[in-house]
Design a protein that fits this description.
Strand content: 25-35%
Order of helices and strands: EEEHHEEEEEHHEEHHHE
Largest sheet: 6 strands, antiparallel
CATH class: Alpha Beta
CATH superfamily: PPM-type phosphatase domain
Number of strands: 11
Length: 244
Amino acid sequence: MIKAYVKSDRGKIRENNQDYYYLSDSLDEIQLYMLADGMGGYNGGEIASKLAIQTAKSYIENNFKEIDKEKDNILQLVGSAMEYANMIVYEKAKESKELEGMGTTLEICLIYNNRAFIGHVGDSRIYRIRKELMRKLTQDHSYVQKLVKDGTITQEEATHHPQKNMLMKALGCNAFVEPDVMVRGFLKEDIILMSSDGLTNLVPQEQIYKLAKKDIEQAPKELVKIANKNGGYDNITIIVIKNI
């Protein structure tokens, strides 16, 4: 059985909340969890994040029954849902001047048979907690992460880098996007935490781990409080999912 809790907050500085999320009901046939952090002037970010999630959700729900439930097929479904969502957001952005250049991050976590099928574009993150270990499953598609990977700067320097919000890849900004897809075990007592960078830029991983491990129901609310106390300069969204 799966339990999931979420909290989304505007933060202390932004005028509106451009994050958007979706959580399956625990009785739904498809266990689907999604998070998007939109960007773009006017209200483009809000439109991009909501549209990406609604499109990916309907794509997965419409096609899940038709596929063989083999690992590769489910992974392909998640990847295709993201590519389709990318196309829809990209086309929408071309409709008016105000929406030009809008885009969004997108995290998808489809849970099936004790496995998490993950799709990822951008710098929102997915972590898995198993026993005493919290591991980041996704790699940020950011300029700063590329510098770390190339050995130009350290992980510590990346935390305070002035260009840390510059994305190398986002959904809806180009006609095509290549999402990262992966499958990871999601066993009894495992916890998956999905979050926008409004959390991870302001709260250390150790603190995130402790609160999620202690109480999955309270963790999203508590983490939002801490992120706001530490500056709250971005929207903050946290989903915590546990295999009970």
